[in-house]
Every structure is written in C-alpha cells, then in structure tokens.
Design a protein that fits this description.
The complex is a heterodimer of chains A (about 130) and B (about 80).
Chain A: H1 2-23, H2 30-44, H3 51-75, H4 80-101, H5 107-129
Chain B: H1 2-7, H2 13-31, H3 36-75
Helix pairs in contact in B: 2-3
The chains are: A mainly alpha (about 130), B mainly alpha (about 80).
C-alpha cells in the first residue's frame, strides 16, 4: 500500500511538472530575436526565377530555421512554445528545399510558397519579439 | 471557392491573407501553372500555418498576462 502511494504521488507530481512546463512561457532572448528577423528578412527576399536560385534561398532559410530550433532545444525545456511556433516553418521550407533539390519546383509554386513563408515568418517574428 | 471569396472581406487580416493565397493557388492550378503535387503541398502549408498561428496567439496571450502581472506587482 505504501509503495502504491509513493508511485501514485510521484506520478502525479511528475505529470504536474510536465504540464506546468507546458504552461510556463519562454522569455525574451537576444539570439532568438536576431535569428527570427534573419529568417523574416530571408523570407521577404526569396527569388523564384530559376530552380537553382530557389535552391539557394530554400537552403539558406532551412539553415537559419535549424539554427533557431537547435539553439532553442539546447536552451532547455521552457523553450517548447517557440519550438512549436517555428516547427511548421521547418516543414514548409523543408518541403520546398527537397523539391528544389530534384528540380521539380515551378516558378508559380515558388511565388505562392514565398507568400506562405512570409506570412509564417511575420507572425512568428511578432510573437518572438513581443515576449516579456 | 465562394466560401474563400467571402473570407476576403471577413475583417480578419490573418484570414483574409490566407484566403487570398488559397484563391491564387486554385487559380494557378486551374491554369496548369502548378502540378497536383505542388498544389497539395501548398494546401498542407496553409494548414500548418494554422498551427503556427495558434501557437503565436498562445505566446502573445501569455506574454500579455506576464506583463500585466508584473505591472500590478510593481504598483503594490
């Protein structure tokens, strides 16, 4: 009975900590703020004229997004909100980068992709920079 | 398509912007400028953007709450 109580209390405490971590927001960070503006700037400067040009832009963006995510992961558990925020961009840009690697990215596709990435980057930058 | 066009004047800049992208996407697909694969990927991107938007709103609300609590504490 005693063992059961210890296990039950430990489980409740640990799950409580996990949900508490989900609730605690991340705070202002100079490096994240600078990097999200780099990402936003890259998004606004995407060029779609050729697949080679698209590839350069897609890979550059993918690299900056990877930097942001790795930095946030290394910083610790309280960064989960900004990781969740930027992960959809990783998917959007990752798909584009894969397509440019195989040469299957049309100009019209790239022009729409650019619009989506700009919307995502603008929104993400707003949230990262408005943190307390 | 009509539902998307209605969203263009719904008053929410965020929804209007995405509706504009979705309409352009459909038009380019009909013209044959983008492939089925490309269209499906871009539609998925718009869905993923919802997840980003939701998280952004959560962060903004939490930040506003912390700012308000900190402000109240400095008054006391």
């Amino acid at each position: 009975m005693k063992k059961f109580l210890i296990i039950a209390i430990t489980s409740v405490t640990l799950s409580g900590c996990a949900s508490l971590q989900e609730w605690i927001p991340s705070f202002w960070d100079d490096n994240q703020s600078a990097k999200i503006i780099d990402i936003r700037q890259r998004a606004h400067r995407i060029e779609c004229d050729t697949v080679e040009l698209q590839q350069i832009h897609a890979n550059g963006l993918a690299k900056d997004i990877q930097w942001f995510l790795l930095y946030s992961e290394s910083k610790g558990a309280v960064q989960k909100d900004v990781i969740r925020l930027v992960e959809p961009m990783e998917k959007t840009v990752g798909d584009w980068a894969k397509r440019t690697a195989t040469g299957e990215a049309s100009k019209a596709y790239c022009e729409i992709k650019k619009k989506v990435i700009k919307v995502q980057a603008d929104k993400a930058a707003n949230s990262v920079l408005w943190r307390y | 398509m009509d539902e998307l066009k209605n969203l263009l004047t719904c008053g929410s800049p965020w929804a209007e912007e995405r509706a504009k992208i979705a309409i352009e996407l459909q038009e380019q697909f009909v013209k044959g400028e983008i492939s089925v694969d490309e269209r499906n990927e871009l539609l998925q991107d718009l869905i993923n953007t919802d997840a980003l938007n939701e998280e952004a709103d959560n962060i903004n609300v939490k930040s506003a709450l912390i700012a308000a609590v900190s402000g109240a504490m400095s008054v006391v």
